[in-house]
Amino acid sequence: MAEFSFKVIIIGPPAVGKTSLLNRFVHNEFKMKYSLTIGVDFLTKSVEYEPLKIAKLQIWDIGAQERFKFLHRSFYEGAFGALVVFDLSRQQTFSGMKTWISEMSSILTDDIPKILIGNKADLIPEIGQIIDKNEIEEYSEKNDCFYIETSAKTGENVEYAFLELANRMVKKMVKLLDNSKENL
Predict the structure, then answer these.
(1) What is the pTM of this model?
(2) Which helix (H) or strand (E) holds 8?
(3) Which end of the chain is more exposed for a tag (fewer CB within 10 A), N or C?
(4) Per-residue exposure over 120-147, b if at least 16 CB sit within 10 Å of its own CB, e if not
(5) Gap between the Cα atoms of 132 and 55, Å rounded
(6) How does pLDDT run across 127-177, given as a tens digit for each residue?
(7) Helix 158-182 vs helix 18-27: crossing angle, to nearest 10
(8) How many other CB atoms sit within 10 Å of the CB of residue 90?
(9) What is the largest CA-CA distance in the chain?
(10) Radius of gyration over alpha carbons of the chain, in Å?
């Protein structure tokens, strides 16, 4: 059985649902109340990306409070993929998410696969579309991100987002391994 192991970071502004997404993915649960992530939390889950091929994801849920910003560099090191989250019901989190991508890009020397997640899709029927989808898609394309809308509350597209990232990381790793073989 083929197996890869990847460090994944989940980043974005405060209260966008990063911890909720992670708990929905790993434990298939949703809580209405979460406490703020202090520094970083870790969860691990193995996923099958092809029959009999496993990717073990060590997922780092990085706290968004400003007082932990000095730790980001050490949290980002070694990441092979990123889930970058904003809240579909709050415009300012989309702007804030851009800052996170910019910071990550300035710290990491390699370009890593990124999934841009608009979370809290379950709120859109109640409140309407807050953030222009064209703006999101343009930003996503410009920054080489795959974009998906999720709901940690209902579970909509959560597994898909993580599996899409796993597939992209595997493809990148296979390409890197193939290139290193050619250079021998």
Answers:
(1) 0.92
(2) strand 2-11
(3) C
(4) bbbbbeeeeebbeeeebeebbeebebbb
(5) 34
(6) 988 999 999 999 999 999 999 999 999 999 999 999 999 999 999 999 998
(7) 80
(8) 18
(9) 58
(10) 16
23-55 in b/e form (b: 16+ CB < 10 A) is bbbeeeebeeeeeebeebbebebebebeeeeeb
Tokens 């999934």: give the residue.
115
Domains of the chain, each with CATH number or no CATH: 2-182 (3.40.50.300)
Report DSSP letters for 143-183, one per residue. Answer: TT-EEEE--TTT-TTHHHHHHHHHHHHHHHHHHHHHHHHHT
User: What is the Cα–Cα distance from 133 to 26, expressed in whole angstroms?
Assistant: 28
- Which distant-in-sequence residues (6+ apart) come within 8 Å of 16 by Cβ? 64, 85, 86, 87, 90, 93, 97, 119, 120
Cα dihedral 28→12→60→52 (10° resolution): 60
